[in-house]
Design a protein that fits this description.
The protein has 141 residues and is an alpha+beta fold. Helices cover 19% and strands 33% of the residues.
Amino acid sequence: MKNRDIVGAIIVNEKNEILLQKKTFDYKFSPGGCWTFFGGEIKGDESPEQTLKREIKEEINYDIKNFYLFKAGRYKFPSGGLKGKKYIFVVFFDGDISQISLREGGGFGFFSTSELNYIKIQNLILRDLKEYINTNFKKKR
């Protein structure tokens, strides 16, 4: 199993909707077109915060400013043969959806907490989302 440290972003807008990325059907770590966080692998000497900023810029061409570390821990993707440390950040999106330019994945969308019950979310991500909603959803910016 390959070690890979990663970051993920729970991106929240002013309506408390959460921005998720739809993976393509052939994505090997979460196949089947699941919805997941934006984020990616920590490279070289990058800090998790540097990785977060780089990945969000690469994936949706958005410069983040207001964010905090929500949780850190270990993860394991049995289907993709990956494990490592994960850093999950909450990012406050204060722009307009028209500012998002998708550069990776099969799609994106903002979802209310009730809408999350009707989309296919990758299991590891779903646990983190539920924890965020249950513990910090009302946290002030």
